[in-house]
Amino acid sequence: MSENGSVGERRQSVRIIGAPTDYGQDRRGVDMGPSAIRYGGLSEGLSEAGVDDEDAGDLLVPRAEERDAQYRTPSKGKAKFLRETEDVCSRLATEVRESIADGYTPLVLGGDHSVAIGTVSGSAADAEIGAIWFDAHGDLNTPTTTPSGNVHGMPLAALLGVKEWDGVDWANAPSLSPENVAIVGLRSVDDAERELLRDSEITAFTMSEIDDRGLDEVVDDALAIANNGTEGYHVSLDLDWLDPTIAPGVGTPVRGGVDYREAHHAMEQVAVDGGMRSMELVEVNPTLDQHNETAELAVELAASAFGKRIL
Predict the structure, then answer these.
(1) Distance between CA 79 and CA 300 in Å, rounded?
(2) Is 238 designated active site?
(3) Tens digit of pLDDT for each residue in 113-161?
(4) Has 139 been labeled as part of a binding site?
(5) Is 35 left (phi over 0), alpha (psi -120 to 50) or beta?
(6) Which stretches of sequence are listed as region Disordered (predicted)?
(7) Nearest to residue 298, comparing CAs of 72, 155, 134?
(8) How high is the pLDDT of residue 74?
(9) Spelled out in words, what is the top-level CATH class assigned to the domain 12-305?
(10) What is the rounded distance in angstroms from the CA atom of residue 22 to the CA atom of residue 41?
(11) Gap between the Cα atoms of 200 and 194, Å rounded
C-alpha cells in the first residue's frame, strides 16, 4: 500500500473523457454531468487514490435542442436521437480504444447512460471483456419494447445485440458475452426486460438478493462472472444505483438503493480485484442535485474504485 492510502505499488494512469450528452433521456441537464463531476474534485480524488490522470476534455456534442428529435430506429420500433447517439458513441469508442492502447484506463464521464454503448464498444474492441453494471435498471429495452423511446434504457441490449439491435455495427460489442455480464442492485425492471433476463445468461443481482446475502458477497460473485475467461472488465456506474437520499441528482431515481458505505465498499472490492479495464460515471444531473452532492459522491466512488483507502 502506498503512502497516500492507495492500493498497489505501480501508479495507474487514467484518461478522463467527457461525453456531455442528454440525447438518451427526456430530462435535460444530464449533459452538464461531466462539468459537475470535475467541479466536484475529480482530479484531486484520483490523485489521492495514487492515480496519474490526464483530462482529454469533452467530446463535442451539439445540444439536443438543436437536433431533430423525431424517432429513429435500427429496424423498427422507436428510439429518440438515434443518429446523434450513433455519432457520439462512435467517436467515444475511438477515444476509449486509443486510450487503452496508450496505456491508460479510460474514465468516461456522462452524460446519460446511452454513452455506455461507446465506452464498452471501445473497451471491447481488442479484447474479450466482462461488464459489471451497477444500476437500478436493466438497460435491456429495445426500440420495440421501450415505453419511452429513450436510449439510456437500452445500452446493454444494444451492446449484446438483443432483438432489433442485432447486427447494428456501431452499437454491438461482439467480444462482450452475456455470461460475463453482471447487473448489481437491480430494482426497477420493465416486463420485457424481466422476460429477457429470465431467458438470458446475464446474471442480475437484485436489491432483495443484496439484502439477503450482503453486498460484499454479491460483488465478489459479480467480479468472478466478469473475470471468467476475460481480459478484464468494464465498470458502468449509474448514480441511480444509490439510494436517492444520498444521490438526489439523477433523472430516474428509485428508492431502496445502496447506501453510502455499501457503495464505497463495492468500489473498494473492484480496486482490490484489479481487473477493471474501463469505467464510466453516468446520469449525474446537476439541475436536480443539491449542492453538487451527487457529483461529489461520484468523485468519491471513482477514487475508491481506483484504490483510495482510509489507511
Answers:
(1) 33
(2) yes
(3) 999 999 999 999 999 999 999 999 999 999 999 989 899 999 999 999 9
(4) yes
(5) alpha
(6) 1-36
(7) 134
(8) 57
(9) alpha beta
(10) 22
(11) 10
Active site residue: 135, 268, 296, 300, which one? 135
87 is in an annotated binding site: no
Taking the model in full, what pTM does it have? 0.93
Residue 211: partners with Cβ closer than 8 Å, 6 or more residues away:
none
Cis peptide before 111 (omega within 30 of 0): yes
Rg (CA), the chain: 17
- Tell me if residue 129 falls in helix, strand or coil: strand
166: pLDDT confidence band, cut at 50, 70 and 90?
very high
% of the chain surpassing 90 pLDDT: 85
Per residue, the 3-state secondary structure of 139-176, as one string, reads CCCCCCCCCCCCHHHCHHHHHHCCHHHCCCCCCCCCCE
For this structure, is 291 an active site residue?
Answer: no
Non-local (6+) Cβ contacts of 237 within 8 A are: 134, 267, 279, 280, 281, 282, 298, 301, 302, 305
Annotated catalytic residue 137: yes
Q: Which of 113, 264, 280, 296 does the annotation list as catalytic?
A: 113
Tell me if residue 113 is catalytic.
yes
Distance CA 34, CA 53 (A): 15
For residue range 216-262, list pLDDT tens digits in order. 999 999 999 999 999 999 999 999 999 999 999 999 999 999 999 99
